[in-house]
Write a structure and sequence with these properties.
Chain B: Its EC number is 1.2.7.3. The complex is a heterodimer of chains A (273) and B (380). Chain A has 273 residues and is α/β, with parallel strands linked by helices. Chain A has helices spanning 7-10, 25-39, 59-62, 75-85, 97-103, 105-114, 159-166, 179-191, 205-209, 217-226, 231-234, 239-242, 259-270, and strands at 47-51, 66-69, 90-96, 119-124, 170-175, 196-201, 228-230, 246-253. Chain A contains 13 helices and eight strands. In chain A, helix 5 packs across helix 6 (105-114). Chain A is globular, with a radius of gyration of 18 Å. The complex binds thiamine diphosphate (TPP) and iron/sulfur cluster. Iron/sulfur cluster binds at residues 20-21, 24, 26, 55, 125, 129-130, 204-207 of chain A.
Amino acid sequence: MAGYINYEYYLRQDYRNLQWCPGCGDGAILQAFLRAVHELEISKDDVAVVSGIGCSGRISGYIDFNTMHTTHGRPVAFATGIKLAAPDKYVVVFGGDGDQTAIGGNHFIHACRRNIDLTIIVINNNVYGMTGGQYSPTTPNGFKTQTTPYGNYDNQFDIVKLATGAGATYVARETVLKPVILTKYIKKALQHKGCSVVEVISNCHINLGRRNKMKSPHALLDWIKEHTVPMSKAKKMSEEELVGKVVTGEFVEIDKPEFTEQYYKLCESLKGE
Amino acid sequence: MSKRKGVYTGNELIALAAIDAGCRFYAGYPITPSSEIMEVMSKEMPKVGGGFIQMEDEIASMAAAIGAAWTGVKSMTASSGPGISLKSENLGLACITETPVVIVNIMRGGPSTGFPTAPSQSDVMQAKWGTHGDHPVIALVPGNAKEMYYETVRAFNLAEKFRTPVFILGDETLGHMNTMVELPDPSELEIVEREIYQPKEGEKYKPFDMSKGDVPPMGAFFRGYRFHLTGLNHDEYGYPTIDKEMIRKQQERMMKKVENHADEIVKNELFMMDDAEYIIFAYGSTGAASKLAAKRLREKGKKVGVFRPITIWPFPEKQLDEVIATGKYKGIMVAEANLGQIIFEVERVNKGRLPLKDLLKVDGTPVSPTDIVTRFEEVF
Ligand SMILES: Cc1ncc(C[n+]2csc(CCOP(=O)(O)OP(=O)(O)O)c2C)c(N)n1
Ligand code: SF4
């Protein structure tokens, strides 16, 4: 395992226009991703990183891979084209909770269903960060946002259940507070043959925390800590104890035929026709 | 290739021509009257080892085709009105990232679900302005079975040459009509191959390099150098920018790469125009009907010729202007299967010089030679 990591090697030297607020979870998640690529000793040339629109979508611009910053909600669809045309490459998607479960929900579930070999990292900060903090399909009940000024009364998606139900073959969830475990999950996702979904619970202290009486960035991280439990611990907890808690860990890891492999097997069988 | 002579529908010809032109990626979503293109692709593409995928919708099909294009392959998607409306979002991304991709629209009646099984020419303006923002567009309007094949080949060539999306606008009549056609051996075709830029040692590839002429060289992913693409206004490296000059220069170059080369893209058929007194201006299947109408009108003693654009965008301004400027003609009639779209372009060029009449039809039936003859006799 490669130990020391020179992040500069993975960051673009000629583009540093960081758009993120200081302390935004996106940076820590990017760091975990770079570490995963580094530890797996994957060549930068063999990785495409496709992102949607949102603060999280900015990730692709900062890193020195084959990168595409696409349209809101659509990165999985672009990535599907890349993967099918270049099946031996690593194709990674970054998108926010809005990007992946609202506008891009259809692409997300269909990639899972197809079990196409993508690594989809959903940065779930429970809000639309970039547009100034409107509620998203994962905003918890009661939270105030720019479009739920009286508190959110709408229901939420559980991204892990969504991915699992749709057929993803590796599904994990971790918070931005646990970068080591997160790195491990991203590594497993990259190595897994099939559609992998890693949900990362992140902090938008600017557009979610501050509006909900969490004045310091730290307060929102504390809130995340209080409201999540690792699976090992959750197993020992009662149903009542688990109310309002989000379980983290690995939820799915199965083998199932992968889309591009199936397709190119078909091509092989038709050769010469 | 065997069995190259046979009866084919226009849609089949588009699919076969695409493969012959080197298309190696197709993403689509079924819709009448274009589905047969995807059906042929699902059968033929795996035989040549290219990628085929039926996506979850047209937004995704357009996205997948663009993604694939940046791995270095020629790619295509096809649909009809409602699907083209969905593709329009990512069509914009193809324009701003300067991605060669071919988009087929087998037009049907609209708006909305309209008349799925009926021919129409009501998406010609959508092809030009369907996605938001200033952007270049090339759109070809084949008028018969043979052209469905050859114009598809040309569409791929133009996409490569100008690094931009190219539309093929057919209609239900052309898409479904059966015609006996002999297809050429693909080796006889003039094909523009993708030249994937390979930067020199230590050179950083600039996907939007303004020093390399109007059309910057096309790179590809996974070739040992890395670069960024974005739908945001960007600099030469593809990085987002808010530099006013850079945005202006890139936007203008993007438009001009098509405008400045209109002569290489525009293609018209001038049918019996030399001694004509009247012009019928028509495209697509209506163009073909106009030729028959012109012959019939001549039998009745009216000297009629047809100006039939085969490229509709960029509009053949110069060519039409030259024709009108000869002063030889007494009138012009535009025939189209919509409620008046291209006629405004014709008038923009005509500038009142010739009396301008129309034949506009939207009842779900094709514009027939009889329709044209009747209307012509009414107005001239
Ligand atoms: C088609 C379209 N609709 C709306 C927008 C505006 N928009 C930009 S980012 C965004 C939401 C971002 O939220 P999320 O995906 O959760 O990402 P985050 O910014 O929180 O990382 C929206 C609605 C857009 N760019 N495109
Ligand atoms: S608005 Fe929120 S998600 Fe966006 S950069 Fe700031 S903290 Fe991060």
